[in-house]
Design goal:
Length: about 220
């Protein structure tokens, strides 16, 4: 169970520069999903299909970034941590690479690494105070996993307007698989708007609404 704690957290609702920089890519992605949902060809004719794949990749990224972040801020020899990070990165690269080969597109590899970097950006920016890196990493992973599941659930159950996603747009996607996001991509786009907006807002305030006890209890 998630507990909200607005009044007793040091720093209150202050927003740091590093938090703003960390949240900015997710705000940008939320805007990209919204624009494409309203006008599918506003940025590119293939953007709808790209963003459907991005939401599929995000499922892997939420999983992989937690492990990578743990290695990055972990104890022990830097060389060993570096080797472990490279090995883990290669494992996920092979996984995503197999998906890229099957689809005949290589851009998912670049998208995977760009979005993984986005998920650990708060570490690179030094957003967490000294000694609080692990706590912020745990919160970041918990928020990403929770918001992904909630966003998918809400946009599957609730009615989602088509906006610019017409039958002609769907036919032009060229997907050779089945599923809600393929047959009705407006659900995937709505999910992206909701998910990335929620993550960005949480990042903006350092996930301070989420108590550490809630994270640690959910990880056991």
């Amino acid at each position: 169970m998630v507990n909200l704690d607005f009044g007793h957290t040091p720093g209150g609702w202050q927003v740091s520069i590093s938090a703003m920089l960390s949240a900015l890519p997710d705000f940008g992605l939320a805007a990209l999903f919204l624009i494409t949902w309203i006008k599918p060809d506003a940025i590119g004719e293939s953007m709808v299909s790209y963003l459907v794949v991005v939401m599929l990749l995000e499922f892997i990224i939420v999983h992989s970034s937690g492990f990578m972040g743990h290695i990055m801020i972990g104890d022990g020899d830097k060389k060993n941590r570096g080797i472990a990070l490279v090995g883990l990165g290669l494992f996920y690269t092979l996984f995503v690479g197999a998906f890229a080969v099957s689809s005949g597109e290589w851009w998912p590899l670049a998208a995977f690494w760009g979005m993984t970097l986005n998920r650990v950006l708060f570490i690179l920016l030094g957003q967490a105070p000294d000694g609080k890196e692990k706590e912020l990493l745990q919160k970041s992973w918990a928020v990403g996993a929770m918001f992904y599941v909630l966003s998918v659930t809400v946009t599957v159950i609730a009615p989602v307007p088509e906006f610019g996603i017409t039958s002609d747009v769907i036919r032009s996607l060229g997907f050779d698989s089945d599923g809600l996001w393929v047959e009705q991509p407006e659900h995937a786009l709505a999910c992206g708007v909701l998910y990335f907006s929620a993550v960005a807002l949480s990042e903006l305030y350092g996930h301070r609404w989420l108590k550490r006890s809630s994270v640690t209890s959910s990880s056991h």
